[in-house]
Design brief:
The protein has helices at residues 10-22, 52-59, 71-83, 88-94, 99-107, 114-124. It has 141 residues and is mainly α. Helix 3 crosses helix 5.
């Protein structure tokens, strides 16, 4: 039987490594950019990792406006729901959505989703007004 060797402590490992280095038994190499997430020269044409495309996006000043459902649709949903004596939760359960979704549509803060509006149409038995389509921007020449 061979004797059981106890595991070395960090201090013992370090001392053994230093001893081996002094004896010339260990070769170490310095790696470029080791232990760093930074790239040395960058990959893109602008010397950055992402390049000019990221810079162009960063410099973009155009403000995009997200279309919301609006008050007309919200009032129509609310009226149809109350006529059927349903709560927001009842309606949400009937269309397999959360009560928060129904609440957002009624308040006019939801981003219109035709599938959800169609579910509301069927559940309430009415034809709800559709939000106006967002005007498309013409391409600049």
């Amino acid at each position: 039987l061979s004797p059981i060797k106890k595991p070395q402590t960090e201090a013992e490992k370090k001392a053994e490594l230093e001893k081996a280095k002094k004896a010339g038994l260990v070769a170490t190499e310095q790696r470029m950019g080791a232990a760093s997430n930074k790239s040395v020269g960058g990959h893109g044409p602008m010397g950055t990792t992402a390049g000019a495309a990221a810079r162009r996006i960063e410099e973009e000043t155009e403000v995009f406006k997200v279309q919301k459902t609006g008050a007309a649709l919200g009032k129509a949903i609310q009226k149809a729901r109350t006529d059927k004596k349903m709560t927001q939760k009842d309606l949400a359960t009937k269309i397999n959505e959360t009560a928060k979704v129904v609440q957002e549509y009624e308040s006019g803060k939801a981003i219109p989703n035709p599938a959800i509006i169609n579910k509301l149409d069927r559940a309430l038995g009415v034809k709800l007004p559709r939000p106006p389509k967002a005007p498309k921007k013409k391409a600049e020449d």
